[in-house]
Amino acid sequence: MANYNYDESGITFKIFAFTILAVFVIPSTIIMSLKGDAYLYQHPLINLYIRFILAKAKSKGEPTTLKLRTKKIESSSKWTSTKFRLLLVGWVLLSILGASLRNIEIKNEATWDPYEILGIDNGSDMTVIKRAYRKLSLKYHPDKVKDTNKEEAEKVFIEINRAHKTLTDDTARENYEKYGNPDGLLSRTMGIALPKFIVEAHASPFVMALYGLIIGFILPYYVGRWWYSSSRYTKDNILNPTMISFFKNIREPISQRNLIDLLCSAEEFNSGDIAFKSTQLVALKDLEDKVQAASQAFGLEYFERSDKFLSDSTWKAKVLMYAHFYRVDVDDDVLLEHQQYIIEKSIHLTHRGLIQISSAQGWAGCTTLLIYIMQMLVQGVHEHAAPLSQLPYLKYSDYLQLATKYNLYGVHQAKLLEPEKKKEIFSDFNGDVEEMVSAVNSYPQIQITHSVISVIGDSVITPFSIATLIIKIKVSNPTSKPKDFHPNAKLAISKLDSLDETNPGQIEEVYNIITKIKPTSEETPEAISPYLAAKKTSNWWFILSNPLNSRNVIPPMLISDLVTEKIFTVQFQAPQSPGTYDFLINVLSDSYVGCDQYRHIKMVVVDPSTLPPEPEIDDDISEPEESSLAAQLAEARGKAPGKGSRDDFDSSDED
């Protein structure tokens, strides 16, 4: 039977509280430290001009729309966040508890050991036990000591007798070996690490009130809050009203401007602090005038309010989004923060919302436009901007100078220039020349190196057969780390490079190797996006479509592990009618403008009736010739060498 004692001194409760607090505080601190400012910085090339570009622009009196995440660092720094404050309180409490426990001595109850009392080794035999007992009895017997030490000698003598009895009496010794004492099983005292005052009568109302507060209010509140929040969102963390609106209003064909209007109508921009407020009207009107002037200066479609989505929050989101596209400075600090949120959220809404719906419908044109919108959001460019406009420090107006003076039109064209020529060209602009050259050299270049369509195991493609497309993609990017290929991937690439596309056996061999390639955890490099105030990895979309009807042949694939090379297969059903079909392969970047690649590939579907007949396989058992051994044996059994009747195979009991 056990007795329960509460903590009278509060020591064990402090130890308990210190341990529980440390379990939460220390791991949380480590996680927060590891995250650090990693999400605040982009590509290593951008880290350098994060420190200098704003200072340079201000010193020259030039406006700049480069985000560089500086506003995000100032406004939502981790050191002023609620999490940091809670961690700070936790460390203060941890320090106070640690200081109070530092000088506390915890007394443990000594284990009763009869061998130790008699001064002998464990497991000593009876002779040694009796000899030690006699020796100690003579020394500590109350009649043998002085009166001043008699009381203490009596205590020692009692323990000596008890130890002797324990080791010499069979019952007592058995109890000691089982329970640790010669008297058998005794009641135990269990300590509870709670102060005693918590369970005392005068404290019970407060304890019950605390229980009621936690169980009756706090717990239901947070559970309900979590449930309400989770029920409002899809599994991709998009509000349900937003997805409903997207599904109802997206269509094919549709213009890019209408897709942007639909994106700006998201419910995420009509709730919380992001929603339109009347105090922002004047600043938004001024910004709208600047956006309209910029659209006219670029010769683009005149900017105006959507005639379908009429809410003020949609108008606000559209103004801020086009200010991002046209690189119009947002002077209001609050609107600038809202613009950053809208741009970052729009990338997520486009990827996880609109593209998912368009892909499910099989719309190739709409999906392609949405990927172009993602490029515009990441790079902060309008739909007709030149790819060179992605470079840091380069304004829209600078592109005309590059085109007329240097005949320079694209990023990949600039990459082919000699290093000194690049420095000469970019020195004409107000920017860090080395950074601009490094940025040019770091833009990726995609190539579709191989594409083969075949029916595995067959030399031709027939109607309704399952065709397999084997494709190899290569990206050139100096910032990419060499990929550690799976052995099967290396073998497949080697076989594909020397593949004879007319040999179905070789195609099947390559296909079988590709199917054995295990998925990798490689991540593509971070996108160089000086006008985006968020981290963005550089991914690619693979789209196989029929250009005649602008329909996807297969759902678009997001490639998130393309570092240097990738080889993969896709399967689809061949058309129902014989003929030659043209398919379009698109590999689109979700981060860069002007890095996309496409290739046409033809598939010849053959009418099965025009194929030569397959050779018949004779599976009949040939009759033995008359001169063969089988014929002679048959004749010996009284059977003709010819083909026997059914009765020849029946068994009989007659002799």
From TrEMBL:
InterPro entries: C2_domain_sf (IPR035892), DnaJ_domain (IPR001623), Ig_E-set (IPR014756), J_dom_sf (IPR036869), Sec63-dom (IPR004179). Residues 609-655 are annotated as: Disordered. The chain crosses the membrane at residues 15-34, 86-104, 203-223. GO terms for cellular component: Sec62/Sec63 complex. It comes from the Eukaryota. Keywords: Chaperone, Endoplasmic reticulum, Membrane, Protein transport, Transmembrane, Transmembrane helix, Transport. It is found in: Endoplasmic reticulum membrane. Its main location: endoplasmic reticulum. Residues 113-180 form the J domain. PROSITE patterns: DNAJ_2. This is J domain-containing protein. It comes from Furculomyces boomerangus. The lineage of its organism: Eukaryota, Fungi, Fungi incertae sedis, Zoopagomycota, Kickxellomycotina.
